[in-house]
Amino acid sequence: MKLTTIHDSVSSLFSLLLWKVKRRTAGMAHERGPRPAALSFT
């Protein structure tokens, strides 16, 4: 049970981080043009 709770919190944290990164790359792409969109995969 303990392991599952840790895994759940880690996965939720990771998804939140991924969402923030997606928003940041989207903002960059909106500012500078479509070129930074290629950087979102790295």
How would you characterize the overall build of this protein?
With 42 residues, the chain is mostly helical. It contains one helix and no strands. The mean pLDDT is 77.
- Share of helical residues: over 70%
Tell how many strands the DSSP assignment holds. Answer: 0
Q: Which series of helices and strands comes N to C?
A: H
Shape: rod-shaped
**Proportion of beta-strand residues:** under 5%
Count of helix runs: 1
How many strands, what sense, and barrel or not for the largest sheet? none
Secondary-structure-based class equals mainly alpha
Unreliable stretches: none
Overall mean confidence score, pLDDT: 77
How large, in whole angstroms, is the Cα Rg? 15 Å
Measured distance between first and last alpha carbons: 34 Å
Describe the secondary-structure layout.
Blueprint: H1 2-32
Summarize the structure.
The chain is mainly alpha-helical and 42 residues long. The protein is built from 1 helix and no strands.
Question: Which features does this protein show?
Answer:
74% helix; 0% strand; mainly alpha; 42 residues
